[in-house]
Specification:
It is an enzyme of class 2 (transferase). One of its GO terms (cellular component) is mitochondrial outer membrane. It contains 24 helices and 22 strands. With 762 residues, the chain is α+β, with helices and mostly antiparallel strands. The chain folds into four domains: 51 residues; 83 residues, no CATH class; 295 residues, Choline/Carnitine o-acyltransferase, domain 2 (Chloramphenicol Acetyltransferase, 2-Layer Sandwich); 177 residues, Chloramphenicol acetyltransferase-like domain (Chloramphenicol Acetyltransferase, 2-Layer Sandwich), CATH 3.30.559.10. A hairpin with a 3-residue loop joins strand 4 and strand 5. Helix 8 packs across helix 21 and helix 18 packs across helix 19.
Length: 762
């Protein structure tokens, strides 16, 4: 770039008269400001670490306890040191003893109070009876419990304040897990197969199970969470197939609102909003998510949101995270750029970031050989990428450029296509939009980064997120912040540009340089072929369900999630004429380092309701039983009494011990032919859902889990809208995402008709 000379701090020339130094004062000033910024961040992190470590204590509480104790000693003329300090200083023995002894004993008393409050809070949070209360009614015992939780939770918590107070995830008993497993598969198995499975289960419960359980109990006492590290390693990082489509997921922009059609301007506001969120995260100023505004949830997953990348390995990948990063990486038309986010010791303003994006868009240079499709390595199989990384990117300019991407705060793609919801062509436009966010061209997203911000040519945008470091609600929290700030708080000028003025002296983006040999280009092409075959097979369908929303479902006195899950079962039976093993994601963040658990939504009660609907029988009572059963299973999953993570960990232990379990092998080999997830709206206070429900994300989605199955994600927007994201594979003769979408819509309408709300209103 033309501004590259500004990166030189000083120049010197050697002549017969000596050495002539030419210092660049501006560069030295920037070095000083950069160092000052780094030291400020270190101090803030140190301070936050101290505040989190002593929470629910505080410096104010420390002063109150110590001063009160010292005043009491002074009044009673006590020597807390019991004469020990008086022996060290005989001249001021009484005065010194009271001061030093009072401070030491007061500090000990303060620490004791903190530990008592923390352990009482942990005990309180281990009780989950509040979840079983009927919706809309709260018992006196629950009210008393909520008051006690508030009392022992302290004041003004920061993001990580509750980490040491959260209980550990309990290990269910072998007996309960085996019983619930058999109950979950009963509607899916013929009598003969079920009797065989029952025999395998009983044998496991009596013989191998207790031995594996002993090791798991030992781990649960020692580790913060007995599931999460193994889940991250074996489900995500050890997978050798492509993470594009199979693991990564996406989040969409507004559906009906288009704040600006200027690509650089939309990127400017979005990037600035993301960096503001990162600053709040660094300072632990993001409020911890609290159920009922009282019950804290684990915040551990936020730690790797920024400055992180998944690094490929031959056998297993690793998560790489750096404490700080002052730049982002940007891709446009086959070129990679490094863009600094700070100048003059401050974060760039939206218009200044837009200015940088404009420079990249205006750059007409051609990609270097092998550069354009380089990111296809992150879209293909992991082992070839790991070997290519070690062989071709371990030194020189390739290593420096790769470091600039992997250590960037996050990755940005200035996409050269246009995506948007079109009212005159809603189906095709939304399907294209979803596929672009999920995989793009297979070489224009860096799928290893914690997340990619994708800004399209017409100003629409979205996210593509890597899954191993965190689950969707974490990235959803960030995305809600960005969308709430973009059009309403940051805003745009009448011409569609970011507010403010360009910076006259801002150094431009740095073009990354590569030297990709022909052998590496062959590996890139091979990875691209694998990725394209995978991407082309994705059958994606997104449709807004506008007939009714949670407002009407609540009038039926039914849980909206249970209503939708039962509708999905009815739709699937109509679609395939059979039931299947169904996965619904539930969180376990009520526990320390908790991630997810599975709700097996295909139950005996749900199947009975679906059969009754197909046979035109009286169904309302069966529906209520099915909804009640689903809610109870969801509660069990959230409170650590689910079965699938327990079975997974038992299987891992069996492999470590070299034991072969026919029961566990069969359990874990059953495919999830219907994989579902709800995208929660977590920060409702950021949006006016009554007057402006359109100013909310239209949700996100993921690829199908089974080759012959469906992936379904849905988001409940306000009172009158539910957006569905459906995926499957074209190669399967059993699936069709558009057909399944039509079945979902009809199932929702048919179930609502059972309640005859129109007649009740009349």
């Amino acid at each position: 770039m033309a501004e590259a000379h500004q990166a030189v701090a000083f120049q010197f020339t050697v002549s017969p008269d000596g050495i002539d130094l030419q210092l660049c004062h501006e560069a030295l000033r920037q070095i000083y400001l950069s160092g000052l910024h780094s030291w400020k961040k270190r101090f803030i992190r140190f301070k936050n670490g101290v505040m989190t470590g002593v929470y629910p204590g505080s410096p104010g509480g420390f002063m109150v306890v110590v001063v009160s104790y010292m005043s009491y000693n002074q009044y009673r003329r006590l020597d807390p040191s019991m004469g020990l300090i008086a022996k060290l200083d005989k001249r001021h023995k009484h005065y010194l003893s009271r001061i030093v002894g009072g401070v030491l004993v007061g500090t000990g008393l303060w620490v004791t109070i903190i530990m008592i409050m923390r352990n009482v809070l942990k005990s309180l949070l281990s009780w989950h009876g509040w979840m079983h209360a009927r919706h809309g009614s709260v018992s006196w015992s629950t009210r008393l419990w909520l008051i006690l939780v508030k009392v022992f939770s302290g004041r003004k918590p920061m993001l990580y304040s509750f980490q040491n107070s959260l209980p550990r995830l309990p290990v269910p008993t072998i007996k309960d897990t085996c019983r619930r497993y058999l109950e979950s598969v009963r509607p899916l198995m013929e009598d003969e197969r079920y009797e065989r499975m029952e025999g395998l289960t009983k044998d496991f419960e009596k013989n191998l199970g207790p031995r594996l359980q002993w090791y798991l109990k030992l781990k649960s006492w020692w580790a913060s969470n007995y599931v999460s590290d193994w889940w991250e390693e074996y489900i995500y990082l050890r997978g050798r197939g492509p993470i594009m489509v199979n693991s990564n997921y996406y989040a969409m922009d507004f559906l009906y609102v288009f704040p600006t059609s200027i690509q650089a301007a939309r990127a400017g506001n979005a990037i600035h909003a993301i960096m503001l969120y990162r600053r709040k995260l660094d300072r632990a100023q993001v409020q911890p998510l609290m159920l009922l505004h009282t019950i804290p949830m684990c915040s551990a997953q936020y730690e790797c949101m920024f400055n992180s990348s998944r690094v490929p390995g031959v056998e297993t990948d690793v998560l790489q995270h750096v404490n700080d990063s002052k730049h982002i990486a940007v891709y446009h038309k086959g070129r990679f750029f490094k863009v600094w986010m700070f100048y003059d010791g401050r974060l760039l303003l939206p218009r200044e970031i837009e200015q940088q994006m404009e420079r990249i868009l205006a750059d007409s240079s051609e990609p270097l050989p092998g550069e354009e499709k380089l990111a296809a390595l992150t879209a293909g199989d992991r082992t070839p990428w790991a070997k290519a990384r070690e062989t071709y990117f371990g030194r020189g300019k390739n290593k420096n450029s790769l470091d600039a991407i992997e250590k960037a705060a996050f990755f940005v793609t200035l996409d050269d296509t246009e995506q948007r919801f079109e009212e005159d062509n809603p189906v095709k436009s939304l399907d294209s939009y979803a596929k672009s966010l999920l995989h793009g061209k297979c070489y224009d997203r860096w799928f290893d980064k914690s997340f990619n911000l994708i800004v399209f040519k017409n100003g629409t945008m979205g996210l593509n997120a890597e899954h191993s470091w965190a689950d969707a609600p974490i990235i959803g929290h960030l995305w809600e912040h960005v969308l709430s700030m973009d059009p309403l708080k940051l805003g745009y000028t009448e011409e569609g540009h970011c507010c403010g003025e360009p910076h006259p002296n801002l150094p431009g983006p740095q073009r990354l340089s590569w030297d990709v040999p022909a052998e590496c280009q062959e590996v890139i092409q091979s990875s691209l072929t694998v990725a394209r075959n995978l991407a082309d097979d994705v059958d994606s369908h997104i449709f807004p369900f506008i007939d009714f929303g949670k407002g009407l479902i609540k009038k039926c006195r039914t849980s909206p999630d249970a209503f939708i899950q039962i509708a999905l079962q009815l739709a699937h039976y109509r679609d395939k004429k059979k039931f299947c093993l169904t996965y619904e994601a539930s969180m376990t963040r009520l526990f320390r380092e908790g991630r997810t658990e599975t709700v097996r939504s295909c139950t005996l009660e749900t199947c009975a309701f679906v059969r009754a609907m197909i046979g035109d029988e009286t169904c309302l009572s069966l529906l209520k039983l099915a909804a009640e059963k689903h809610q109870n299973m969801y509660r069990l999953a959230m409170t650590g009494e689910g079965i699938d993570r327990h079975l997974f960990c038992l299987y891992v232990v069996s492999k470590y011990l070299g034991e072969d379990s026919p029961f566990l092998k069969e359990v874990l080999s059953d495919p999830w032919r219907l994989s579902t997830s709800q995208t929660p709206l977590q920060q409702v206070e950021l949006f006016d859902l009554v007057r402006h429900p359109e100013y909310v994300s239209s949700g996100g989605g993921f690829g199908p889990v089974a080759d012959d199955g469906y992936g379904v994600s849905y988001i409940i927007v306000g009172e009158n809208l539910i957006n569905f994201h459906i995926s499957s594979k074209h190669s399967s003769p059993e699936t069709d995402s558009h057909r399944f979408g039509a079945n979902i819509r009809q199932a929702m309408l048919d179930i609502l008709d059972l309640f005859q709300l129109e007649k009740k209103t009349k």
